[in-house]
Amino acid sequence: MASGNKTTLLFYPSTTNVSAKIHPVVLFNICDSFVRRPDQAERVIGTLLGSVSADGIVEIKNSYAVPHNESADQVALDIDYHHTMYLSHQKVNPKEVIVGWYSTGSGVSGGSQLIHEFYSREVSNPVHLTVDTGFTNGEASLKCYVSFNLSLGDRQLAAQFQEIPLDLRMIEAERVGFDILKTTVVDKLPNDLEGMEATMKRLLALIDDVYNYVDGVVEGRLIPDNNIGRFISNTLSSLPKISPATFDKVFNDRIQDNYALVYLSSLARTQLSIAEKLNTAAQVL
Amino acid sequence: MANTMARSFLQAVATEEVAPPLRVVQMEGLAVLKIIKHCKEFSPALVTGQLLGLDVGSVLEITNCFPFPTREEDDENEADGANYQLEMMRCLREVNVDNNTVGWYQSTLLGSYQTVELIETFMNYQENIRRCVCIIYDPSRSNQGVLALKALKLTESFMDLYRHNSFIGEKLREKKLSWVDIFEEIPIKVSNSALISAFMTELEPDSPVVQCDLDRLKLSTAPFMERNLEFLIECMDDLSSEQNKFQYYYRNLSRQQAQQQTWLQKRRTENIARKAAGEEPLPEEDPSNPIFKPIPEPSRLDSYLITNQVANYCNQINGAAGQSFSKLYLMKALQDN
């Protein structure tokens, strides 16, 4: 369906260079509504909210499921539901507007065209996101499409869904940490120091890797790669050059500052516990 | 056989009457992400929202949530907000989301959430639902690679005191309630559906360094510390003004007692004189006299809350300082190499 075969029939609008970016909460929401789908429903569909920037990047920030009924060649969407939900979402964040719709399952199916037409009336040029919850090809595939009308003269022939690039980097999920998002149960949230420890361990491992690589190249065990070499020298040169004396001074100053802060807060805490004892002591009066 | 079973069933019912204490809050990854998204988008404004989930034994599951629109101070808006809430609950029920309120979430700035408002809201929720919890998220700390998510509830003994509005020294001593016992933090567990887990494992980038690592290793902690200290100083000022209130109260109290003593002395000598003269003695109590009117003792709630905040800031400063020590030593080691 979505292919790049060019015939004279095709008319590509100027916005072919659109791409989409997805917020992890959208994926979570879609999966959750799929897990909670009604009995016997094949797939869930819903509305995508977000924003479109001037350079054609569609940012999908939020979503909600819309109940629907599907039979052989008919799709009934609960339009009232869609509208009330949209109004509710607008109250919270007026900046998030409809950018398209999603459906679970792999690829575009027959009924999709009808739904896409409905969303085209809500917003011009909606995007269509498919999430393959069945893992049909044995992999998690998320795809994003825009649709074009193919027409010959005045006659509508068909609609073509063209795939657009989807950015799956999900910085937000990285901030939370994949460790707690990818397992089914996490017993305890990592606290500050544990997180720090994990990060330092990773940094150490990375430095070790670099050492091993460099040693390997020097000893002739590994084939040298100029690109990697350049990366390493770039990284090394990005360290600011400070004379040991200045560094020691800066370092010691910072350490002293921190000690002062720790001292201050411990003092305050001690005061609190003294005050606590005094306040609740039996009144002498 | 059937008899014993019936009995054991009865026993089971009887034992279930006593609700097990809330031990763990189990949050779905979806709820965590939704809270983070909402709080972050509106930061530094403070926002709130509703938590939906199930109450299962000693575990409170939070499976979904929805944000509240930012409130404006309007009477009209209040009804509007209630409508919004009902509408949202109805809509979510239609797509089979758990339709049971279990509490609310709110964002905070550097952990300054211990306020009277929070307690009031909590009491409101507690009236309607037996078990509720408040999730606090601090968007300002996520820039340091910390997931600052907390589940709080008020302790039973505190709620008892609050209902009777008796925050005077004697009652507090009786209950042995100190400022540490107002809030109770409940450990959070995060759970995800198998589907999500599969997707995230697939989509996890191969790169060994992720954003939160970079955030954690940032060397500049000065702005964070500065703001913490600022808040700490403010709180200290508040605390000292609370202390002044108490001192004022005690001064008044002792002055009143001195007045009462002199009055009694006078009355007694008068009575001795009257007795000598053969007249009836005058009563030793005179309720109409203003010096016998008890002076109300100021509530200790505020000072307790402020103390809580101060302790919180101290903890944060200590934690951040500890981290920056380790970061600095790491930096030194790198530089030495």
From TrEMBL, chain A:
Domain spans labelled MPN: 20-151
InterPro entries: eIF3f (IPR027531), EIF3F/CSN6-like_C (IPR024969), JAMM/MPN+_dom (IPR000555), MPN (IPR037518)
Alphabetical keyword list: Cytoplasm, Initiation factor, Protein biosynthesis
Primary localisation category: cytoplasm
Compartment annotation: Cytoplasm
Entry annotated with the keyword Protein biosynthesis: yes
Pfam families: JAB (PF01398), MitMem_reg (PF13012)
One of the record's GO cellular component terms: eukaryotic 43S preinitiation complex
Manganese listed as a keyword: no
GO MF, one annotated term: metallopeptidase activity
GO biological process assignments: formation of cytoplasmic translation initiation complex
The protein's role, per its UniProt record: Component of the eukaryotic translation initiation factor 3 (eIF-3) complex, which is involved in protein synthesis of a specialized repertoire of mRNAs and, together with other initiation factors, stimulates binding of mRNA and methionyl-tRNAi to the 40S ribosome. The eIF-3 complex specifically targets and initiates translation of a subset of mRNAs involved in cell proliferation.
Subunit structure: Component of the eukaryotic translation initiation factor 3 (eIF-3) complex.
Family indicated by similarity: Belongs to the eIF-3 subunit F family.
Protein known as: Eukaryotic translation initiation factor 3 subunit F
Organism of provenance: Dendrobium nobile (Orchid)
From TrEMBL, chain B:
InterPro entries xrefs: eIF3h (IPR027524), eIF3h_C (IPR045810), JAMM/MPN+_dom (IPR000555), JAMM_MPN+_peptidase_M67A (IPR050242), MPN (IPR037518)
Database matches in Gene3D superfamilies: Cytidine Deaminase, domain 2
Localization per record: Cytoplasm
Main location: cytoplasm
Signal peptide residues on this chain, from the entry's feature table: none
PROSITE patterns: MPN
Protein family per UniProt: Belongs to the eIF-3 subunit H family.
Name under which the protein is recorded: Eukaryotic translation initiation factor 3 subunit H
Originating organism: Dendrobium nobile
